[in-house]
Each structure stands twice: as C-alpha cells, then as structure tokens.
Amino acid sequence: MAMISIDGVDLPAPSSFKMPRSDLDSGDTGRNELGILQRDRVRQGIYKIELEWKGITSSQLHLIESAIEPSEINVTFPTPTGMKTKKMYAGDRNIEMIKYDADYNKIRWNISFNLTEY
Fold first, then answer.
1. Would you state the pLDDT for residue 81?
2. Torsion-angle region of residue 18: left (phi > 0), alpha (psi -120 to 50) or beta?
3. Measured between alpha carbons, how far is 61 from 51 in angstroms, rounded to an integer?
4. Rg of the chain's alpha carbons, rounded to an integer?
C-alpha cells in the first residue's frame, strides 16, 4: 500500500510529509471593544498536508502533477489513527530542476505543494 494515493493512483513516497490541522471560524469571530475574543468556530480539525519530493525523475514528476491536476481530488494518507481519505485541493506547486542531462530520463526534479481538505 502506498503512503499517499490520489483518486486511486499510488504516488511515490514523499521526501517530506507534514500534516497540520486547523479550525475554521465564522466571519463573526473577532475581538470586542475590551479585546476579548468572541469566537464562533464552525469546523475543527481540517487537514492540510505539506508534501515535498526531492530528486525524482521526470516520469515521477509527471505522475504527481497529473494526479493533482483536477480541482477536486480524493486523497488517501496516513494519520495517527489509520489511513484516511479526504476530499482535497492542491495549492501552488513549486517545481525545481536540480540536475539537467541531455538524456531526458536522467533529469532530476524537486516538487512541493500543499493539499487542503474541502
């Protein structure tokens, strides 16, 4: 079983995997005139996955980019309580060529991006 799969496509294991979780507050959340927070939390525990692959091949890069191309994807990933599948979207991609070779198959890349739960 792959560490991460997107819409059933197994991705190579990432070089870095971070999983912060956040809460979503309504627009009514804010501080009053006394500086006391008036919080209206509407959702908690939203998953965000920060991913990075280093030194991957062009074909691996293409596989990853193709998997995150749709505006909405189903991502299966490990959590402390087991594998979870969540509907997510991909943020900005940072792609860096780290080794060029005239042989296209020998070029190496780094890619990083975040996946955020809907």
1. 95
2. beta
3. 13
4. 18
Number of Cα atoms under 13 Å in the Cβ half of residue 56: 22
- CB 103: neighbour CB atoms within 10 A? 7
* Domain range 5-117, CATH architecture: Beta Barrel (2.40)
Cα distance between residue 4 and residue 14, in whole Å:
8
Pairwise CA distance, residues 38 & 60, whole Å: 47
Alpha carbon distances (Å) from 25 to 1, 22, 80: 36, 10, 25
What would the pLDDT profile of 21-68 be if each residue is shown by its tens digit?
999 999 999 999 999 999 989 999 999 999 999 999 999 999 999 999
Beta-carbon count within 10 A of 12 CB = 15
Between CA 33 and CA 93 the distance in angstroms is 41
Residues, the chain, total?
118
Give 75: exposed, middle or buried? Use CB within 10 Å, 0-12, 13-18, 19+.
Answer: buried
